[in-house]
């Protein structure tokens, strides 16, 4: 890749802003060593944590802090460049003073994701691993952490690199058929070529057929609560969230807009959405709330439909995964009943009976929707689109008999796969990908 590396030296906090015991300031770039020489009386040994006084040099030298300094000589660093870490006392005044000194010594504040971008440009990680680092920083649950860590360690990269190697071999065979048409090449050359293309095609199709489990786990699930007005939707939201997130009154139609609460079910982050009650109305505001509720129900990963246990179950205008019967004393022997392919669960939002069982059922649903099956899953729309594009080219390659046209489709498939890991044509993707990172990463 002909992507220019910056000659500037950058710095940023790698820890959260605010008061604390320690704040870590990261530095990376060609001036790192000279900056350390100015800050410290003596530069620490490579990769050895050492206590140093940090100074702002000038007409009158000023002591800024006593800190732990670590010096990483490139390419043996996170970014592949000369780098350093300063473990400062985390007072805002200390951080500001050190930042001002770094600017005076020639460094500049880093942009979002610039450290990881430099790591990619210096060949320390590929794009998939870099995205895994971003996901690891954002992980809310242990399941998200495990998925992100596997991607950071190269689990997804290994799968795609294996496909890329097979594509390279196929291209080599295809070029041989194009360049030496008059040679007596063995018949099995083209047979093996077609067989490998078909195998790659089937493997990638299977990879795509994962019901979006990796993407769901990364972003979290959405569980919508639908039902008629005053069916107990807001009360159920509060019980599942273990706090008073929604206003509950005896007046029907209190909820006009969607109310969202983030919880963890089955080690999966889930956004619970309380919606406006579904009914016929001439109130324009309530009608808009109902329209939004129906839209949320259509797009949700799971829909809970609440009904008063004293009335018949009504079919809503959207899918329904679980029917929740409320407002009735519960016969505990009737916790769950099958209704076609769905489940009916009985709860009391007033006494809380049945809520623990409901939480267990919803946790199992969340686990099922994000369960790992086979190789590392797709985690982003970018990955899915890239593999889909590669599959389209492989499908076209299988259809074509002309070696030149088939070879072109194989090259296009190779490019689609290469853009995922960052080995081909990634210039336009970099700013978009790394701008999603935090500043100190």
Automatic annotation (TrEMBL):
Native source species: Commensalibacter papalotli (ex Servin-Garciduenas et al. 2014)
Protein's gene: mnmE
Binding residues for (6S)-5-formyl-5,6,7,8-tetrahydrofolate: 26, 85, 124, 441
Residues reported in the UniProt entry to bind Mg(2+): 234, 255
UniProt GO MF annotations: GTP binding; GTPase activity; metal ion binding
UniProt protein name: tRNA modification GTPase MnmE
UniProt entry keywords in alphabetical sequence: Cytoplasm, GTP-binding, Hydrolase, Magnesium, Metal-binding, Nucleotide-binding, Potassium, tRNA processing
Record: residues binding GTP: 230-235, 249-255, 274-277
GO terms classed as biological process: tRNA methylation; tRNA wobble uridine modification
SUPFAM superfamilies reported for this sequence: P-loop containing nucleoside triphosphate hydrolases (SSF52540), TrmE connector domain (SSF116878)
Protein's job: Exhibits a very high intrinsic GTPase hydrolysis rate. Involved in the addition of a carboxymethylaminomethyl (cmnm) group at the wobble position (U34) of certain tRNAs, forming tRNA-cmnm(5)s(2)U34.
Highest taxon in the source lineage: Bacteria
PANTHER family hit by this protein: TRNA MODIFICATION GTPASE GTPBP3, TRNA MODIFICATION GTPASE GTPBP3, MITOCHONDRIAL
Co-factor requirement: K(+)
Assembly description: Homodimer. Heterotetramer of two MnmE and two MnmG subunits.
Cofactor binding, note field: Binds 1 potassium ion per subunit.
UniProt domain TrmE-type G: residue ranges: 220-367
């Amino acid at each position: 890749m002909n992507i220019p590396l910056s000659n500037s030296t950058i710095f940023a906090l790698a820890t959260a802003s605010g008061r604390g015991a320690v704040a870590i300031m990261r530095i990376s770039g060609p001036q790192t060593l000279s900056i350390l020489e100015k800050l410290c009386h003596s530069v620490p040994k490579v990769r050895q944590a050492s206590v140093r006084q940090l100074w702002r040099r000038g007409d009158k030298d000023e002591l800024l802090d006593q800190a732990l300094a670590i010096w990483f000589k490139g390419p043996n660093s996170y970014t592949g460049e000369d780098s350093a870490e300063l473990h400062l006392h985390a007072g805002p005044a200390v951080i500001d003073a050190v930042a001002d000194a770094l600017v005076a010594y020639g460094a500049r504040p880093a942009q979002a994701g610039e450290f990881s971008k430099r790591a990619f440009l210096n060949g320390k990680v590929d794009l998939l691993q870099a995205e895994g680092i971003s996901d690891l920083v954002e992980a809310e649950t242990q399941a998200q952490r495990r998925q992100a860590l596997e991607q950071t360690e190269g689990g997804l990269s290994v799968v795609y690199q294996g496909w890329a190697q097979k594509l390279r071999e196929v291209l080599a065979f295809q070029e041989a058929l194009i360049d030496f048409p008059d040679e007596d090449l063995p018949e099995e050359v083209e047979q093996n070529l077609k067989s490998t293309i078909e195998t790659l095609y089937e493997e990638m199709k299977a990879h795509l057929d994962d019901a979006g489990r990796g993407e769901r786990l990364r972003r979290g699930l959405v569980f919508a609560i639908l039902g008629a007005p005053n069916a107990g939707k807001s009360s159920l939201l509060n019980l599942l969230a273990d706090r008073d997130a929604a206003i509950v009154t005896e007046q029907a139609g209190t909820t006009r807009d969607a109310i969202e609460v983030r919880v963890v079910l089955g080690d999966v982050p889930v956004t619970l959405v309380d919606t406006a009650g579904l009914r016929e109305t001439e109130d324009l505001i309530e009608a808009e709330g109902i329209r939004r509720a129906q839209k949320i129900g259509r797009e949700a990963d799971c829909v809970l439909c609440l009904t008063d246990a004293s009335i018949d179950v009504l079919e809503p205008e959207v899918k329904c995964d679980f029917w929740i019967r409320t407002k009735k004393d519960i016969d505990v022997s009737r916790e769950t009943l099958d209704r076609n392919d769905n489940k009916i669960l009985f709860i009391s939002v007033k006494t809380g009976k049945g809520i623990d069982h409901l939480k267990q059922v919803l946790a199992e649903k969340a686990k099922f929707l994000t369960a790992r099956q086979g190789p590392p899953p797709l985690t982003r729309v970018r990955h899915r689109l890239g593999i889909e594009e590669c599959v389209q080219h492989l499908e076209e390659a299988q259809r074509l008999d002309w070696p030149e046209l088939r070879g072109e489709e194989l090259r296009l498939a190779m490019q689609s796969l290469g853009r995922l890991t960052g080995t081909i044509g990634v210039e336009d993707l970099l700013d978009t990908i790394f701008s999603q990172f935090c500043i100190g990463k």
